[in-house]
Amino acid sequence: MNKANTVTNADITAVFDRVADLLEFTEANPFRIRAYRSAARTISSMIESLASLRENSTRTFTDIEGIGTDLSHKIEVLLETGSLPLLEELEASVPPGVFAIMRVPGLGPKKAKILFEKLHIESLESLENACREGRVATIRGFGEKTQQSILDNMAFAKSDQHQRLLWEDADGIMQDVLAYMKQSFAARTVEGAGSWRRGCETVGDLDLVVESDDPTTVMNHFAEWNGTTVVLLRGDTKMSIRGPRETQIDLRVVTHDSFGCALQYFTGSKEHNVLLRSRAREHNLTLNEYGVFDGFQASETSVPEKMSVNVIHAEKGKWIAGRTEEDVYKAIGLPWIPSEMREGRSEITLAEEGRLPRLVQLSDVRGDLHMHTTATDGENTLEEMVQAAIERKLEYIAITDHGQRVTMARGLNAKRLLNQWGEIDRLNDSLSKHGKPAIVVLKGIEVDMLEKGGLDLPDNVLEQADWVVASLHYGQSQPREKITSRILEAISNPHVSVIGHPTGRLINRRQAYDVDMLTVIQSAAKYGTFLEINANPWRLDLNDIHAAAAQKAGVKLVISTDAHSTQGLRQMRHGILQARRASLASQDIANTRSLSELRTIMKKRTRIQ
């Protein structure tokens, strides 16, 4: 845990999540467990730091939705001391190996509790031994299949190297398995679901939903995929395997009448599904993975003829929808909601009020405003990057090699930069020689925010640029106030167009630096400086929460690839997914506009004519 004076929202989120797990293990009141999980989720989505809110005499933590007096007090304690007595008390009462047991896929706090009580299991080693001796299978609710699944997942749980996959890596696996499953003659429709379909930054397991009347043939086909290393579980209509990179892939086979509901259900998120089920109850309907039913519970007698009735739990009710997602949402009085928005935030309200945005699409993008060449640390020349951009049908790009502070990348000093801009002028002249050019190349630079303040190139150089990206690469461990002030200084510089990768995070590699993003967003709105959604799959920075807050504050956003090669230009799609998760429309993204329109909204810029 951090020291008290550096306790962040992420720290408090982690504490509340751990408390919830331990409360669930000890079979505490479900409402209490839910309160901590809800609070953790709310805090993780906040832009404003709890530490800053605490200093505001006009506000209290109870102003935050879902935070009552008790949780407010615990936040105060965490901010004041850096620790929480309740967590220490719970950890002292629970065997230290419990959390290791929970790392086994399928074993949450409840099952870990049962294993501890019935077999005195409190470590991965004792769990593995109990499975090999056949003792786990004797416990009610486990059985042979679960026991074997635990053994098959043991190496996975013991590995300290496993991390959730970047969406890009998960997508590679998903595309392979989708293409393969579509070859099955028994599969009418095959779709990916889960966090992959929602475009999440990282993905744990992959989910497949297949429409078929012959689940046995579909599952046999799945087992024969060359990516299948082991079958973890197989039932009548569901199956799990371990695939490439130890990724678990879960398959569910459903009939035509259930396909839409199943796809919606397994896409999630859990929070979104809870809201949909609640809305269904308000309409005197039951919504589950098999369909929408009239009445609070669906009945076996009402299930369509070919539906698997053995898994329907019900008394009465008539099946009324479920074949498509559109039908499902329509049955409960809503328009279809894009999968990237389904996180249990504001999407239901927007749908109810008819205010769902038309989310930005890759085809909307007309320019890419952050890329590098062999002049610094890029892999391709200026000409090669331009040609690749033309092939992608972009109308304009900005060449933004590093400034001189980034010595490891052979950053450009003023002389080298001006020489490069001369090359760009000559290239633009050549492109326009026979009429309208295929593309316009903007003279850009990625300047560094210096540790002591200021930028690594002088204003009299920057004022000659068409596009200036200001980024922070050094001094990332400086105090929050210092890092924030460096970014604010860059935002207020009249020559800076955009702040690049504003929090500096590298997913699975490096945490974001400690920065007051609320103040950064407010300052960007004030000065008209753009903020970047960096499409590099390791960055995706801004994240979706920050991007949504920036849009709400009126900040202009740019999606850029930060490409270091011609292949890197393909990364734009990752930035688009991030923007869609932030509920952004085309008009929220500056580089979906034509160059002339971009020039119009660049109020601070004077060089682009």
| Approximate helicity band | 25-40%
Quote the average pLDDT.
Answer: 90
CATH homology group of the largest domain: Metal-dependent hydrolases
Radius of gyration: 27 Å
Q: Structural class of the helices, strands and pairings?
A: alpha/beta
Examine the coordinates and then state which fold CATH places here, giving the name of the CATH topology of the largest domain.
TIM Barrel
Main beta sheet: strand number and arrangement?
A: 7 strands, parallel
Low-confidence stretches: 298-316, 605-609
- Beta-strand segment tally: 17
Topology diagram in text:
Elements: H1 9-25, H2 30-44, H3 50-54, H4 69-81, H5 85-93, H6 98-101, H7 109-119, H8 124-132, H9 143-152, H10 154-158, E1 165-166, H11 167-181, E2 189-193, H12 194-197, E3 202-203, E4 206-211, H13 215-223, E5 230-234, E6 238-242, E7 248-254, H14 259-267, H15 270-282, E8 285-288, E9 291-294, E10 319-321, H16 325-331, H17 347-352, E11 367-368, H18 382-391, E12 396-399, H19 414-431, E13 440-448, H20 459-462, E14 467-471, H21 480-492, E15 498-499, H22 517-527, E16 530-534, H23 544-552, E17 557-560, H24 572-581, H25 595-601
Parallel strand pairs: 4-7, 11-12, 12-13, 13-14, 14-15, 15-16, 16-17
Antiparallel strand pairs: 1-3, 2-4, 5-6, 6-7, 8-9, 9-10
Helix pairs in contact: 1-2, 1-5, 1-7, 14-16, 21-22
Can you give a write-up of this model?
The chain has 609 residues and is of the alpha/beta class. It has 5 domains: 4-93, DNA polymerase beta, N-terminal domain-like (DNA polymerase, domain 1), CATH 1.10.150.110; 98-158, Orthogonal Bundle (DNA polymerase, domain 1); 165-254, Beta Polymerase, domain 2 (2-Layer Sandwich), CATH 3.30.460; 258-352, Beta Polymerase, domain 3 (2-Layer Sandwich); 365-601, Metal-dependent hydrolases (TIM Barrel, Alpha-Beta Barrel). Strands 11-12-13-14-15-16-17 form a 7-stranded parallel sheet. α18 (382-391) links the parallel β11 and β12. α1 packs across α7 and α21 (480-492) packs parallel to α22 (517-527).
